[in-house]
Structures are given as structure tokens and as C-alpha cells.
Amino acid sequence: MTTDNHSKEIAPLSDPGIPEHVHRRTDTDPKAAKKAERQVAILFSISAIGTILFVYSYTFMSGDIFVFLPVMGSTNAKQLFLGLGMAISLFFIGLGAVHWAKMLMPDNEIIAHRHEFRSEESDREDFVKTVKAGAEAAGLGRRSLIKRSLGAALGLVGLTPLLLLRDLGPLPKDDFTKTSWKAGTRLVTDPGNRPIKPSDLEVGAVAQVLPELQPGELRKLENIGKDAVLLIRIRPEEFQLDAERLSWTHEGIIAFSKICSHMGCAVALYEQQTKHLLCPCHQSTFDVTRAAKVIFGPSARPLPQLALMIDADGYLVAKQPFTEPVGPSFWERDSA
Amino acid sequence: MNFISRYRRSKFFGPALLAAALFILGTTYSVASATTFKAVTPASDKTTLVAEGKELFARGCSSCHGLNAEGGSIAPSLLGVGAASVDFQVGTGRMPMADMSVQASRKTPVYDEAQTAALAAYVASLAPGPASIKSADLAWERSGDTAQGGELFRTNCAMCHNFAGQGGALSQGKYAPSVMGAEPGQIYEAMITGPQSMPVFSDKIITPAEKLSIIKWIKSAEAEPSLGGASLGRTGPVTEGLLSWTLGIGGLIGVAVWLASKAR
To answer: Residue ranges of the Cytochrome c domain (chain B) (predicted)?
Structure first.
């Protein structure tokens, strides 16, 4: 072999092994160890002071003292020191324990070799023998009455979770598609329950409305969640609607479901100058002049519009129920 | 003192003494607490007020709103906005605007009270509109109902102004300002005039009595101390989340680095 041949090969690196263990200063220098011990003791003492602070503020501090903190502003002193006391007492116990372990507890490096997971053959045989002996002693083979009744009991226990599944139902039927709005339902203020005349709303005005309650009827929360409507009045010439939607408005008054078609938040942030409706949850923005067309954000379709007209007494009423389900999408919903 | 000793055993003495004491107490109190009424502007002064306002308007406002308040490309017409609108916009310092940003914000007013009144009188003289509201004229403390105000606020105001009245973001850099620290009269004027992005809340939709309740609720929210510890601006999950993500997770990362470092 010539040296030329050798130059192309790289000599294999020898295993460098584990670097030599360097002991901490606390292991070699008794002075450093003493210092670390003191540090741990100080950390534990700070924790004790935290507990005393907690007990003191819980027991003796009055609840109406306020202190000013630079970023937090005016803060209730009792709550502040309760929290601080508990935080200090817990955090410094942990800090001291970790510091103790890191600086003073034994610093030996131990190598634990991997071994096979399978148990020794003799252990496995012993185990089978023990189980068999136990079963024999309990009489599982002989006492079939116990075996069968136990089987029946366990089987019945298994049924209970299946029974609980029933609580996932019943199916909502038309709860998703129907609201309380019917043809001729009066629009009333929320709160206040007063019917509204077109003259009550100036241009630029809004009203949060709900369907009128019949005498003796109570307002249900789950109905408010579907029925909430926002009434807006703008100048009629600002509408850019087709003939049908325009016929659903009255003298510039237009009504939309307040339940966002994205995730069902209440869309009621109406910007009077831009005529935009903004949903506070995900910033879906709807253009009121174009039948709540989505102009920004994640919402997939406009807010449902409620057709309006005037009843014999001159109050605003719904001309017909909502023509589409209000609120977010669901599986059975027609996406059209 | 002769007649006191003569009549003090009479059965009318007690009631008479009570009436006299109440009368003295009442008159003393009303004299002591009396405020000098501002002279009501007589009819002849009204025209000078309008003239003064017109001059102020020509100098300070007409460059944007037009010489006759007819509006321009960068500013709306002020015909029919009424004295209430002027009093709100100028009285809170929103107008004149400091810069051409998307929204005029509350700042130290440029015009003093008399000048604001003159401007309001001038704009109101152009076309009818809602009259300005003085805080002192509103009996919100006596007539308002805090609980009702809270319910009204949550339905009608909280979506923009936050559930604790701290304000919130709108689209494109616009925002609903905090209502904390706003004068009762200004809150009332904002509701009836609908300044900037805010819609109008007509008197039939939220009655004047209900408006006073809203003001009372805002004032009680303003005075309410934060008994549960740090309020973090009362803006809910935004500041709470920010704080726990920056301070909480930051602190945990610091602890993790320290835990994994080798002791020397």
C-alpha cells in the first residue's frame, strides 16, 4: 500500500467516550457548599415570609384599601398581597428545592444499561401457575352460578354509558330554522318592550328590537338568541338593493338579524358614517346599504334581512318570518 | 322670653316649634347652598351670540365645513346638526380636529365655554336641530335607575363601548371611545346626535328617563372600585391574555432555562 491510497480514506474516529465528569465547586470547596446551604435557607425563608404575608393580609387587611401601581393602576391592596404572598410562598419553595438539588445533592453520574423487557422464563411460568391456582381456589370452573351472574352484572354496567348517549338528543327539529318572527309580529324595543313607529327613528338612528310578547308570555333566553334584530334607519336613496329587498324596507328603515352568520355573535357595532355593521368576535363586516353583504372577514353569507311593513296602528311589524335560518351554518342547512 | 314660658305647655307648642325649626333649617340651607343663576341670555343678546359664533366659525371652522357650514369634501355639512352636536364636538375638544386621522379624539377643548355656546348658537340658527344639554340640568342622580341603566347599556352600548364602558375597536382604525370621565351632558348629547361613527338613539327608542339611567350606570361604573384585584383596564380577555402570555409564559421559559442549566 502506498500513501496515495491512504490519502483518499478517512481514518475512522475512535469513540471519544463520555467526557470526564467535572465536579461542582460545592463538591470540592466546603466554603462554597456552606454558601449554597445558606442560599437555600434564604430561599426557604423568603417563602415563609410570603406565607406570613398571605396570612396577615387575609386576616388583618381591610378590603377597601387601594394602592397605586405604575402599570396596573389603582389596585385593591388585600387582593394584591394575598396573591403576592401565595405566589412568593410557593415559588420560593420550588426555587430553594431546585437550588438545593443542583448545588448540594449527590453529583454522581450513574450509567444504567438497557436490558430486555421480557421477563425471565421461570418468572413467567411462576406467574401462570399463580393465576391458575387462584382461579382454582376461587372455584371459577366449578361455581358456574357466580360466573354467569358476574358476567350479567358486568354486561349491564357496560350498558350505562350507552344510556347516557341518549342525552345527546333529541334532534332539534326546526329550532335552527324557525324564529319567533311571524307575519304581523310587532317590533319592540329591548329592553322596554315598546312598539316602534317609523317616526320614532331619525335618519342615522338604530334600535335593538325583539318580537312583541303576547300578554303573560315570558321572554326565553334561547329565543332572544335567535330573535334579536337590529333596526337601522338611513336615507332611502342610499340603498343599493334589488326590488324585492327594497320592498322589505320602510322609508329607509331596514332590519337585520343580529346573530352573525359566521359564529353567532351579536353583530351590533353599527358605524353610522360608513353604514357598516361589524361583528366584534371575528371582524366580519357587513354593508347595510347592500343587504348586509359581507365586505370583510370570515362570514360566508349576509345577515338575514327581516321584511318590514306597517300595521293598521302605524307600528313597524314583520311582513313575514325570516326567509332563511338565522345564525351560523349547521349540517342540515341549505347553503343557498 | 315671657311668652315662651307662658305658652310652652300649650298642645300647639310642639308642632309650632317643629314647623319653625324646619322653616329656619330649610331657608338657611337654601341660602347657604344657593348658586348664583347665570343670567339668561335676553333675546337681544341672542343675536349678538349668533354673530359672535358666526365670526368664530368663519375663522376656525369654515376652512373645512364651508363658509356657511354647507360642508366640503373633507367635512360634513352642519345644517341641522343642532346646538347639541356642536356642544359635544367642540366641548369635548374633538373639534377642531388635530389632524386628518380617521377619527377625532377627545382632547383639551380649544374654545372656552362661552365661545362654544356662541358657535352652537350660530350653527343652531342655520337650521333646527337638537338643543345642547347642560350637565347641571340633568337630574340623573335623582331620576336615574342604575340597574335599568346597566341593562340598557349592555343591550345598546356595550357592543361598541365595552361591557364596562372602557371603549373598543371598530373597523379601519376607528374606535368607540371610553365613556369613563365623560360629562353627563356630553353623554346625553352623544346619544341624541350620534357623533362620528355612533348611531343616534332616538328619544322614543331610549326615552329621556332611560338615558338618565344609562348616565347613572356609567357614573356608578366609573366610581366602582376594582375589589377583585388588578382590573387590567377592565377590557376582559385581551389584557388578561396578553399578561399571562408575556409575563406568565416568559417567566416559565426563564425558569426552564435555569432548571436545565448545569451547576458549576
So the answer is: 48-127, 144-222
DSSP A147-160: HHHHHHHHHHHHHH
pLDDT band at A146; cut points 50, 70, 90? confident
Q: How many other CB atoms are there within 10 angstroms of residue A282's CB atom?
A: 12
The CA distance from B249 to B20, in Å, is 72
Window A:7-66, CB contacts with B under 8 Å: 24-26, 63-64, 66
Work out the angle at residue A165's Cα, subtended by the Cα atoms of residues A163 and A171, and round it to the nearest 5 degrees: 120
Q: Which residues contact B94 (CB under 8 A, 6 or more apart)?
A: B88, B104, B105, B106, B107, B195, B196
Cell numbers placing B261: 442549566
Chain region(s) in chain B for CATH 1.10.760.10: 38-132, 134-225
What is the Cα–Cα distance from A103 to A333, expressed in whole angstroms? 65
Q: Average the pLDDT over B11-27 and give the result.
A: 84
- Please state, rounded to an integer, the average pLDDT across all residues of chain A: 89
What value does the mean pLDDT take over residues B25-42?
61
**Euclidean distance between CA atoms B128 and B5, whole angstroms:** 67
Q: Which of A271, A279, A286 to mutate to test the interface with B (most CBs of B within 10 A)?
A: A271
pLDDT score, position B42: 47
Nearest Cα residue in chain B from A228: B155
What are the distances in angstroms from CA B174 to CA A213, A271, B85, B143, B157?
37, 9, 19, 34, 16
| Class at the top of the CATH hierarchy for domain B38-132 | mainly alpha
- Give me the mean pLDDT over the B142-148 stretch: 90
Buried b (16+ CB within 10 A) or exposed e, B105-139: eeeebebeeebbbbbbbbbbbbeebbebbeeeebe
Query: Which CATH superfamily hosts domain B134-225?
Result: Cytochrome c-like domain (1.10.760.10)
Distance from CA of A25 to the nearest CA of B (A): 6
Instruction: Give every CB contact of residue A179 below 8 A, 6+ residues apart in sequence.
Output: A211, A223, A226, A227, A321, A322, A326
Per DSSP, what are the bridge partners of residue A189?
A209
The DSSP H or E segment spanning A216 is none
